[in-house]
Amino acid sequence: MTHTHELQGGKQLKLSLALTGIILLAEVIGGWLSGSLALLSDAAHVFLDMFALALSYAALRIAALPPDDRHTYGFQRAKVLAALINGATLLAVAFEIFREAWHRVQHPGPIEAGPMLVIAVIGLLVNIGVALLLRGHAHDDLNTRSAFLHVLGDTLASVGVILAGVVLLFTDWTWIDPLVSVLIGLIVLLGAGRVLRESLHILVEGVPEGLVLDEVRRTLRDLPGVQDVHDLHVWSVTPGYPALSAHLVLSDRALSETEAIMAQLKARLEEQFHIHHTTIQFECHNCGQGAGLTCIAPDLHEQPAH
């Protein structure tokens, strides 16, 4: 990711943060005046939206720092950590909404549908604007996606609050308010599960989504001169940044053609799996997890390909 791209993403996050602050202020005032739990529940989610956006922006700035002697991959994982925290906050707010909805069912109170409806419409319009701002960066960046899911969930929640407000304008069905709150909680819970699953998968260095390790192993074994592949690892530094390391046992004849084999290997991995960062060790015998014999020139013993 280029520095310019980082700055562009940062500007969008800052603008989104300011717009979300407007929604929060309006919904807190509107929820207090109208007595709407759905509106106050949505306000709690909006507060978490602000937290998510601020955290995502901070992670974006940290990730832009260059690598150093103690952090050789740089600080890209800061964005994954931010996504994990955002997912955890989504989870927490979902259960808090469920708790408050159950309390409101047991102890219903009066609700002013007019103010509730007006504030919800304002919130919907601003949320749509924020979601559009973040949408372009939410596909490949887990950090921005976690913030986007916060906002998307809040957009859908605003639709629910509007529907509840319309019903309350013409009926006395106060139960519709906690019902909408539960639906908001379910939306939030769904987003939390997705973000937590993906961020945890990256942090435990799981194989990138959509990539099958056996297919990678088979591709490496099919290279001319390769007799065996072992100690194969594929993981993601961040989403969209897969890395691979492997030991390849070569035939005696192929030991004199390591440069050509390396070129073919890099081309296949990039074309078939979009893996650009590789560390390959060539051997004439299986090393037995690092205890065996390697027999190629020192300058080719470990050859990274970026």
How would you describe this protein?
This protein folds into two domains: 3-203, Cation efflux protein transmembrane domain (Alpha-lytic protease prodomain-like, Up-down Bundle), CATH 1.20.1510.10; 213-305, Alpha-Beta Plaits (2-Layer Sandwich). The chain has helices at residues 3-34, 37-63, 77-106, 113-135, 142-170, 176-203, 213-221, 258-273, and strands spanning 226-238, 241-250, 277-283, 303-305. Helix 5 (142-170) runs antiparallel to helix 6 (176-203). It has 306 residues and is α+β, with helices and mostly antiparallel strands. Strands 1-2-3-4 form a four-stranded mixed sheet. The protein is built from eight helices and four strands; from the N terminus they run αααααααββαββ. The model is unreliable at 1-8 and 290-306 (pLDDT under 50). Helix content is 63%, strand content 11%.
